[in-house]
Fold this sequence. Notes:
Blueprint: E1 4-8, H1 13-24, E2 28-33, H2 36-49, E3 53-57, H3 63-77, E4 82-85, H4 100-127, E5 131-136, H5 149-169, E6 174-179, H6 188-192, H7 203-218, H8 223-235, E7 242-243, H9 247-258, H10 261-271
Amino acid sequence: xxxxxxxxxxxxxMGREVAKILAREGDKVAGFDVDGEGLDSLEKELKDxxxxxxxxxxxxxxxxxxxxxxxxxxxxxxxxxxxxSNVGIGFFGPFEEIDLESALKCLEINVIGAAAxxxxxxxxxxxxxxxxxxxxxxLVGQIPxxxxxxxxxxxxxxxxxxxAFRLELEPFGFRVGLIExxxxxxxxxxxxxxxxxxGSPYRERVKRFIDRDNELIKTAPNPVQAAEKIVKxxxxxxPPLYTRFAFRDSFFIFLNKVxxxxxxxxxxxxFMDIKVK
Length: 277
């Protein structure tokens, strides 16, 4: 049966591919993004597919705009079955050297942005008997990564938020899910990977981290492969609380929970090639 799916951050990457797959399957897609050009090209693709859709240019930090978007969606479709919080930005750098005002923007977009879209649609979904609330998290929502302290904090916050409100909403027919990819082969990492300036005590290790991450990205799922996995989660009647893209990710999370801190830290530092030399 066709469903009405709200997606944030769908102009590029995984969100865009999810929207196209859903449209091909006959679902109705409503979404927004700050990237107007990306939305225009997606609009053309969705029209070619023939799906019913509503695309709006909107910044996730514009909370009155989100409420207006919600009203447009409900006026057009009458209800929403699934909300996928996909919008997010990366943040990279040695903690000592990061700009905290920029860090605040990351937390505002990644955490409060997710909160805003879910909070906007929960009332109407609750009155209709519930639905599915799915958030794109990350492996770093379970395993803290060096040089990604703020991004890690944002994903830990998303996971904590959903795990908490899940207990509030399940009695009303909601299912909550977290999707935790390690890497996806997109330009996401390249946009944030910057070496510290010459003279930084972290520069050499950060370079090795970036080089290692770039190697891992070469074998990571591409946006279409990732989107196919995401759509399977969205379409399940009872999506799992946690979804990972690879056995290795689940195995690392298991080790992170059971091994002594010293051993698990050594594994992570070795895996990312940032041992002190």
